[in-house]
């Protein structure tokens, strides 16, 4: 019985050593590398964030004023079929002074989004007396990002394969195979247009603000490990 146990123990150590050796062999001749493809893509989408805000002593009256102004903005926005809109961030908050409530502030945002910059600019000008522009942000539309990333993925893979073949050649190997690969996308945050807070509503009432879209950077990164043989 003792001899049998010794034999089993010896086999266990032999198998453990073989497995560890096999793991070492699997990591032999492995190289990690990366490849990147990027492009500056023309911004084809504009997002404007407007706020309707009222301040006073009666929150119910303020809410009615905000709701009335927002309804007028939505009615105007409905006439621009190339502009998407949605209301967000409704809030009613007390304004304190010396530890007690001095007044109330009620506000609501509406987001306007369009690939037609001219239409969105005209809409912003028309509702300028009803609301305040918080921000205008240029970006790349989802459909354009997807098409660009598909194109850049092909370029990044081609670069990765070229680099892998070149590395194998430099190390005197005939070929390689993939051990691991990871493909990641990166889109730089949209560019925000700074609005002049000193610009009077009357100055913008009859004309849309001048806008320049610019570009944003879209990238595809590939990280992977190859084994040379």
Core attributes:
5-stranded antiparallel β-sheet, 229 residues, alpha+beta
Topology of helices and strands:
Blueprint: H1 2-26, E1 30-42, E2 45-56, H2 59-77, E3 83-97, E4 100-114, H3 117-126, E5 132-139, H4 142-170, E6 176-187, E7 191-193, H5 201-204, E8 215-228
Antiparallel strand pairs: 1-8, 2-4, 2-5, 3-4, 5-7, 6-8
What features would you describe in this structure?
This protein has 229 residues and is α+β, with helices and mostly antiparallel strands. Helix content is 38%, strand content 40%. The protein is built from five helices and eight strands; from the N terminus they run H-E-E-H-E-E-H-E-H-E-E-H-E. The strands form two sheets. Strands 3-4-2-5-7 form a five-stranded antiparallel β-sheet. Strands 1-8-6 form a three-stranded antiparallel β-sheet, covered by helices on one side. Strand 3 and strand 4 form a beta hairpin. The protein is elongated, with a radius of gyration of 31 Å. The two termini are 47 Å apart.
